[in-house]
Specification:
The chain is an all-beta fold. The chain has no helices and 33 strands. The chain has strands at 8-10, 19-23, 37-43, 54-64, 74-83, 99-109, 113-118, 135-142, 147-162, 164-172, 181-185, 196-199, 203-204, 208-215, 222-229, 232-241, 248-254, 261-266, 279-280, 282-283, 305-309, 313-316, 325-330, 334-338, 346-352, 355-357, 360-362, 367-375, 384-385, 389-390, 396-401, 409-421, 430-438. Keywords: Signal.
Length: 439
């Protein structure tokens, strides 16, 4: 797929993956703050213990690496058993680091199934007949469906390796257990454009014919073959029809000496969605050079679409408990460089997670921005700022440029930020993650 078809996600949080936005001070809170839930559990001690099954209550929670993933993302899940229903089934004290937990997390809502989780062989010493300590298990799953996905604690097993290898399996008495965490998954995918072409030769004299072969076109569609001079289409065109297998093969006579490439597309004009990437082609200017003259040529190479940020952390102004109101600040300046030299514009969007603190949160929909952008003098394109309004989990446009005959240039994008903090939000430091996507 051509450079203009590639989607680039840019984010940085303290050198990692996103832009951190904090309210009322420096914050650090992982995505997916854990919520403890209690559920009835049936545990079966090892037969060697000679004691009956244990029916008790387990306290546990689920935490995730991302509460607002995209479809296709992989999410890390941490299942922590805060208080197991079972205890050491023997009178023998157990030393440290002999306990290996495993279990599962149950998905519900838009996506169902179980996630297998496992913990390290690590624990504090356990007295004879004493309560098992808290432990955590981790696993991952791939998000396959958009919507609200719930996560509930599932069955778990405590394996001990001391003198004997023993298991204490604990099952949820009335599955599923209460929901401990909820994800909101978004489908940001766009139809994949697999159209591509190859040429039987990379150069020719004016008036020569080049055979254009291609794949990935719509069966039976009329496909236009066209020469390009930089970002513009030349007058050299031809049409063909895609076969039932989506393939094309047809000649194109190229006369324009300024031709730098050839494309194929469906519809009335080349678009990123229905056109192929440019295949390089050079017309050899065979015009005789007059005596005493020299022909001088040069080449302009296409570059890339890129983005950089002036910083990776924003501290919003503090607000008072009981009053609340706007916690304000400014987005770190984003610089976009479009050096592709083609017809495609670009779009810079952002979305934000909930702002969380221990035991509390401020909804993502409380964050609004007022975008602004500027275009460097001499740029072929003109930057357009997005509309003021809510950013939220669904996201909003920060800035963009339209498609055109020839696009590109350098641009800067900024935004004023405002987090509407409810009056009686519990005191503390809250943080959310704003992710910017350039495509």
């Amino acid at each position: 797929m051509g450079t203009q078809n590639r989607r680039r996600r840019w984010a940085s949080v303290l050198g990692a993956t996103a832009l951190a936005v904090t309210a009322g001070g420096a914050l650090a809170c992982p995505a997916g703050a854990a919520t403890d839930v209690d559920f009835a559990t049936h545990c079966i001690p090892p037969a060697v213990a000679g004691i009956p099954p244990i029916d008790g209550t387990t306290t546990a929670n689920i935490a995730v690496s991302d509460t607002t993933p995209d479809v296709g993302d992989t999410v890390t899940v941490t299942y922590t058993v805060v208080k197991p229903a079972a205890s050491n089934p023997t009178a023998i004290a157990l030393p440290a680091d002999i306990m290996t937990p495993t279990g599962k997390v149950t998905l519900g809502g838009a996506q169902t199934g179980d996630i297998t989780v496992a913990g390290p062989k690590k624990n504090d010493p356990v007295p004879g007949n004493g309560a098992f300590p808290s432990f955590s298990m981790t696993g991952t799953f791939k998000v396959t469906t958009a919507g609200s996905i719930t996560l509930s604690p599932g069955d778990y097993n405590i394996h001990t390796s001391y003198i004997l290898e023993l298991d204490t399996p604990c099952t949820v008495t009335n599955p599923p257990a209460p929901v401990s965490e909820t994800l909101t998954a978004t489908d940001t995918s766009t139809p994949v454009n697999n159209r591509a072409i190859t040429l039987d030769k990379a150069s020719g004299n004016p008036g020569d014919s080049v055979t254009v072969s291609g794949t990935g076109f719509t069966a039976g569609a009329t496909v236009t073959l066209a020469g390009r001079s930089g970002g513009s289409q030349t007058g050299d065109t031809a049409t063909t029809t895609a076969g039932a297998d989506g393939k094309i093969s047809a000649p194109l006579v190229v006369n324009d000496k300024t031709t730098t490439g050839i494309v194929a597309y469906e519809g009335g004009a080349w678009t990123e969605a229905l056109g192929s990437p440019v295949a390089a082609y050079t017309v050899i200017d065979n015009t005789p050079v007059p005596d005493g003259s020299q022909k001088i040529t040069t080449t302009v190479n296409a570059g890339t679409l890129s983005m950089s940020q002036a910083g990776d952390s924003v501290a919003l102004s503090a607000v008072n408990f009981g009053t609340g109101g706007a916690s304000t600040g400014a987005l770190k300046t984003v610089t976009v460089k479009d050096f592709r030299g083609g017809p495609a514009g670009w779009s810079l969007t952002g979305k934000v997670t909930d702002f969380t603190a221990p035991g509390a949160k401020i909804d993502a929909e409380k964050l609004s921005w007022t975008p602004a952008c500027a275009t460097k003098a001499g740029s072929p394109s003109t930057c357009q700022a997005g509309s003021p309004g809510v950013v939220g989990k669904a996201g909003a446009t920060l800035a963009s440029t339209p498609n055109g005959t020839l696009t590109g240039g350098e641009f800067t994008a900024d935004a004023g930020l405002s987090l509407d903090v409810p009056a009686f939000t519990p005191p503390g430091s809250y943080s959310g993650v704003l992710t910017l996507t350039l495509s």
